[in-house]
# Entry
Amino acid sequence: MNILEVTGLTKKFGGLYANTNINMNIEKNSITAVIGPNGAGKTTFFNMITAVYKPTSGDILLNGKSLVGLKPHQVTKFGIARTFQNIRLFHDLTVLDNVLVGMHHHLKSSWVGALFQMPRTRHAEENAKKEAYRLLEYVGLAELLNESAGNLSYGAQRRLEIARAIAAKPKVLLLDEPAAGMNPKETKKLTDLIHDMRTKLDITIVLIEHDMKLVMEISDFIYVLDHGEEIASGKPDDIRNNPRVIEAYLGKGAVANG
Amino acid sequence: MLAHIIQTLPQVIVDGLTLGVVYAVVAIGYTMVYGILELINFAHGEIFMSGAFIGTTVLLILSSVGFLSSVPAILAFIIIIVIASIATGFLGMGIERVAYRPLRNAPKLITLITAIGVSFLLQDIVRFIAELKTGNYIVSAPSLFNEKIHLKTSSILPQFGDALFKSSFLVVLIVAIIMLIVLDFFVNRTKWGMAMRAVAQDRETASLMSINVNKVISVTFFVGSALGGATGVLFMVQYGSIDPYIGFILGIKAFTAAVLGGIGNIRGAMVGGLLIGLLEMFAAANLSTITHGAFGAEYKDIFAFAILIAVLIFKPEGLFGKAVVEKV
# Structure
């Protein structure tokens, strides 16, 4: 069953086509990679799905319901969460608070209740904190919960972004270059985490990534973009040997000599 | 000279605290809006003034129907302050919706000038209504709390003089402190307070965390304006007479307090407000003694603005603000 369907998605900035006629069918509970050289339009694609950009044309369906025209906060409520290529945590908030912000639409706290410390509100608050703590444990950051997010190491910030994203209890999680800047050991941990989120948390994962070892190892299906167009799609083995993909990454000569 | 300073100290502290909490609560309105929109909402002083006028109107209505004489003053006061703060809360929210939101993506300067425009507009609307109803735009309200309290501070230390104040001082101080505590709690402990801090840091990312940014901005304006309006009522209770222009100079001083504390920082605004209030009253009491009569008490206003200039030159991030370090 397809959880996310994209049909004819196009984004034009002035005269420039950042995405042209992208079609994707993403199966529930799969891991899908979107790859392509720098400037291929991968992040633009993510931005359209999360309603940061409004598509020029085309449609995005989540479980058959169109997301086009919604506001970003509504899309998140419908069940799509994401991380960012250039980490965008709330740097001055604590690690725990960052995760709590991610839970925003699940938190049921009236401020009157909070003010007078009514039992029900206090209970809800405590539950939210426990849940946030559990998520931090899950990504391995529990001992840093009171640290400012800005003080974390790069790899830890990436994992905190993931914790914050899954705090929204998404159906689909979009990861924008999750392994960028990680050393091999951190990348290995991340790979395990992504696998685990799929199986244990039942989340469908779409990731943009340049680390080909990670992509080939982890993905069920791969889409390749170049200059805003979809140039190939298939299972990792098909993509590895596809001449158009090699050409896009390495240039025409590589194919001729290859 | 020193003897005079010490002798007046208790009175200075009492008066300074009253003025200081008023500045502090108004300063919070500036700092909250700045934190979230990077806009200096110059109309905030006029929200304060509107609060004072709405409060006075309610007070006059209550006293004309004879309600005032039949209930304790504190109950009437609570009714007045609640009505005034809800009304100014919606006023602030409306101003944001009509005047600032359409300009959300316009250059900052344009919104700033709009804010000044809104401020003049409010002054003249209030003046118009006041003159229409009473024939005079300076309105005096019947006072609610009149007992004189004599604080025998001289018994603590013989050098101290006694402090004398109206009982309204206590009301102002207590209500303002309650507002400060509630607000601090709201911002740090509740869901919407947390959303507010998230939006202040990164609006776009916050919206991707399922936070409705427009709603958070509306809530911010409501809370900030309601506090400002409530402070207007406190001002009216303490000083008795109001006019449509009280918001201007007070607003600028509260803005100075916000800058002193580090604009965008709520606790900073509280401390800044108290400091400026105390300093101003200290100056009012001692300026002529210190300068041997060269400057009178009326020069006290210079202090607030001298502080503003000094802060902007030497510590532009304010007492509690963080200096922005540009990464290379």
Chain A has eleven helices and ten strands. The longest helix of chain A spans residues 119-139. Chain A touches chain B at residues 50, 52, 71-74, 76-77, 81-82, 84, 88-93, 97, 100-102, 104-105, 107, 109, 111, 114-115, 125, 164, 168 (CB under 8 Å). The beta strands of chain A are 2-13, 16-27, 31-35, 57-62, 65-66, 80-82, 172-176, 204-208, 221-226, 229-234.
